[in-house]
Amino acid sequence: MDSAERRTELAADRTVLAAERTYAAWVRTGLTALASGVGAKKVLGGVLPEWGVVLTGSVLVVFSAACFAAAVWREIAPDIDAPKPEVRRIPRAVLFTLNGFLMLVSLAALLGVWFGETGGD
Questions:
Q1: Nearest-10 crossing angle of helices 3-43, 50-76
Q2: 120 domain-assigned
Q3: Looking at residue 47, what DSSP letter applies?
């Protein structure tokens, strides 16, 4: 194998690893938004009017669900023709299952924001 082919394979490996870092960043952002949305319900109670608390929490929780969907968006799009990387990708089934579960958690949190008790006095 000549060095140009090897560099191309290594570039394909780096592309896979970059995609996994991007996936992790979307999930991390979604989890942060989810926690912030749920926390807003308790922390902002008594500081903002009820509608402001519910709106803020709802926007953050819906954003978290969008992040979980965006995390797997690249897997839905067709792959371009590229050299086969040596690095193993995270299986699609794992990505879809995990992110589907996280989206269900976001839905449950949204219901909690809408119908749960607000903190404060």
A1: 160
A2: no
A3: T
Instruction: Using alpha carbons, select from 22, 13, 25, 36 the residue that is nearest to residue 84.
Output: 13
Sign of the Cα torsion 55, 120, 105, 68 reads: positive
Model confidence pLDDT, tens digit, residues 42-100: 898 888 999 999 999 999 999 999 999 999 887 776 565 666 777 888 888 999 999 99
How many distinct structural domains can be found in the chain?
Answer: 1
- Write out pLDDT tens, residues 17-28: 888 898 999 999
Sign of the CA dihedral running 40, 43, 47, 51: positive
Q: What is the DSSP letter of 45?
A: B
- Domain of residue 10 covers 3-115
Contacts of 121 by beta carbon, 8 Å cutoff, 6+ apart: 46
In a domain, 11, yes or no: yes
